[in-house]
Amino acid sequence: MIQTEEKRLAEVRKFLRLDFNKKNEFKDIVDIAARLCEKPVALITLLDEESNWLKVRSGVDVDVMPRDTSFCHYAIQQDEILIIPDATKDARFTSNPLVRSGPKLRFYAGVPLKLSNGIVLGSLCLFDIKPGNITILQQQVLALLGRQVVSFMELGMSRLDLEKQIEEKEAKNESLRKIAQLQSHQIRQPLTTIMGLVNLVKDGHQPVNDEWIDLFKTATHNFDTTIHQIVAETMARKDLKAIRFNKMVEEIDDYAILLIDRDGNIENWNKGAEKIKGYAAAEIIGRHFSIFYTDEDRKNNRPQKLIDRAARKGVARDEGWRVRKRVEVLGQYPDHRYS
Questions:
Q1: Nearest to 143 by CA among 36, 69, 16, 50
Q2: What are phi and psi of 86, to 5 degrees?
Q3: pLDDT (tens digit, 9 = 90+) per residue, 17-34?
Q4: Is the overall model pTM greater than 0.70, yes or no?
């Protein structure tokens, strides 16, 4: 029973995400239920651990009620409609504050809202302050409307899930593109070294001697190591980090926000960074963040000290001069800086 209730609550939390007021179908159903069954109040409710959420209402303006006073708590425990002709004569409700004091409820009828997987979320229900009943035909209509509510809910949730999948796919494709840019830079450096050594021999500037062979072995080893690191790296972890960064900060253009790895290499770049620091993403991703520090700061190893401090303490704060990209203006290269 506990496991079943846990699953039910998980489904309730999921369906609480739905915007029941976005479309008119749900409101139309409760209005029709109230009119056809001749009752002043009709509700679509979802019941979680502590609350009875009145998601769609006709005849009442309350959004949420405590679960422990809820009639729907009993409705979700059965497969068919629950009818309470007079709550003052039902032992389950005689001490209920909704019965004893305002609004002094008397009549209740509720059909469980059961999903296609068999889990019950809440009810489509009717209330009245007068004792009463509903006919067999009205009971059948209420059950039919309850099934219609479930159909609309499941359709709405399917739409939400599809939109989420599309959003995640688009974000993942963007993150993979940025990861490819970074990996391209990682590969380019050792590959350039190899091609340089080959061209030295090809152009007759360097004989193939032991020294050249040792250099070539080192270069090919570095290239092979880089490839293996890229292949072995956990893509899922980088994906999540890149997606999270993209969604939160990529469109911010008031502040320069960049993501670096543990070695200080730039992994991502937002619009603010491009505007403030002067570099396009394609020309800065993969380079070391020390490029933004003055010659004196680099000489004093200030960038690495910040990385070491962040690794030890989880955060590192620093104030000082930073260097923008040099921009050619009338043949000169002014050093644009900001603090």
A1: 36
A2: -150, 105
A3: 999 988 788 999 999 999
A4: no
